[in-house]
Every structure is written in structure tokens, then in C-alpha cells.
Amino acid sequence: MHEFAWYVVFIGRPNAGKSSLIHRLTAAKPVIGKKPGSTRKIIEYPLAKKFRIVDIPGWGKIHGRPSTYEERIKDEILVFLEENKFRIPACVHVIDAKSLIDVSERLAKKGIIPIDQELYQFLCDLHFIPIVALNKIDKIDKSALACTVAYFKELIDISTLSPEHDASIITVSARKGDNLPALRDLIRKRLRAASVEEFERYIKLS
Ligand SMILES: Nc1nc2c(ncn2[C@@H]2O[C@H](COP(=O)(O)OP(=O)(O)OP(=O)(O)O)[C@@H](O)[C@H]2O)c(=O)[nH]1
Ligand SMILES: [Mg+2]
Description:
Strand order of the largest sheet: 2-3-1-4-5-6
Helix content: 25-40%
Number of domains: 1
Radius of gyration: 16 Å
Distance between the termini: 32 Å
Number of helices: 7
CATH architecture: 3-Layer(aba) Sandwich
Low-confidence stretches: none
Largest sheet: 6 strands, mixed
CATH superfamily: P-loop containing nucleotide triphosphate hydrolases
Mean pLDDT: 96
Bound molecules: guanosine-5'-triphosphate, magnesium ion
CATH topology: Rossmann fold
CATH class: Alpha Beta
Number of strands: 6
């Protein structure tokens, strides 16, 4: 039988930088790839006896892979989160800040809900207050970043949500290290809130 452990999970669209952030913030060293779809299954990395970091495959379409692949991965993620939500004090939703607006607009024009909006809503439905890491900010300038943050807040209808949702949105660069201490602190705060502060020290800049 699986021994009980607490999980911190990283979730988001393919290629958003989930595995890269895990690399930066923990002792786990998951596979990072240039192409979307590098992480192919849910992988739990033990950081301590009762504490694991979980790298989740990209949520959404991957060019060159059949839609059955996308559906199977989504089903796996849904089951995993539903079964384990009570042991997940922190859920980090990673977003590629460089492509958020373009990708979302493209889908919205086709009448499809943007993936990051759908995913955030799904996490809220499971009663998470997601920590949102808008990643890859080294690839965009300040004004584009401000637009992207505002765009995301509008996507999730932030004015209808509690202030903690707003306070849990952060802009980072896994590549350059920008704002990673702040992301580390947000995750640690969630561990404290769940009274598992003994694991805080495993979330650290490596
Ligand atoms: N410029 C830039 N590139 C980044 C950043 N974070 C990640 N990348 C790059 O983005 C690509 C995807 O990174 P991964 O960490 O594998 O992304 P992922 O979300 O785990 O991707 P999947 O497992 O395919 O869903 C790699 O080429 C990374 O080097 C960042 O902050 N800035
Ligand atoms: Mg990955």
C-alpha cells in the first residue's frame, strides 16, 4: 500500500516550464525538454519521508500526438487530483507568459475556452487556491508582462474571487531565476497553513 505523503504539485499547459521550476526549487531533477510533451506521466519525487513534489504532464493539445493521448493524460490528471486533493497543500499552476494571450485569443476566436482559464477554474472547483506562476518573463518586456498579468486576471474573473487568489499570482523566470524566492515563499506559506512546516526546507533554490 502507498504510504501517506503530502504533495506539492506543478500543473499547466505543455512546455510552460513546470519541470524547470521543480528543478530550480527542489532537489528533484525531472526531465526538461525544448518540445512540449517532455513529461509523459505523473511523476512523484520523494523529497522527504512523507513529502513529495509531483511533476504533471502538460494539460492540453500537443502537436504531433493523437487527441487520445491528450484525453488519456487529462483523465489521469483528473483522477490524481480528485483522489489526492486532501494531501496537496500547494498546487502551482505554471503558465507561459510569453504565449498566454496569443494562444488564448486563438482558442477564444474558435469559441473554445482558453486552456489556462479552464484549468484554473477546474482547480478552483476542487477548492484549491492555485499559486499561479506566470513563467518565462525573460522573454517579454515590462509592458507586455503587465498586459499579460491583467489579461490572466480578466480570464479568471479575479474581481469575483477572494483576495488570496490575487495574492497568489506571481511572475517568474525559471531560466533567469527572477522572483523564484517569492515563489518559494508562497509555497512555504501554504505548507505552514497546512501545518506541515517541517517540509518547508525542501522547497529551496537549488
Ligand atoms: N526563456 C525561458 N525558457 C524557459 C523558462 N522556463 C522553461 N523554459 C524552457 O521551456 C522549455 C520547456 O520547459 P519544461 O520545464 O520542460 O516545461 P514543462 O512545462 O515541464 O513541459 P512538458 O513536460 O512538456 O509539459 C525548455 O526548453 C525550457 O528550457 C523560462 O523561464 N524562460
Ligand atoms: Mg515537464
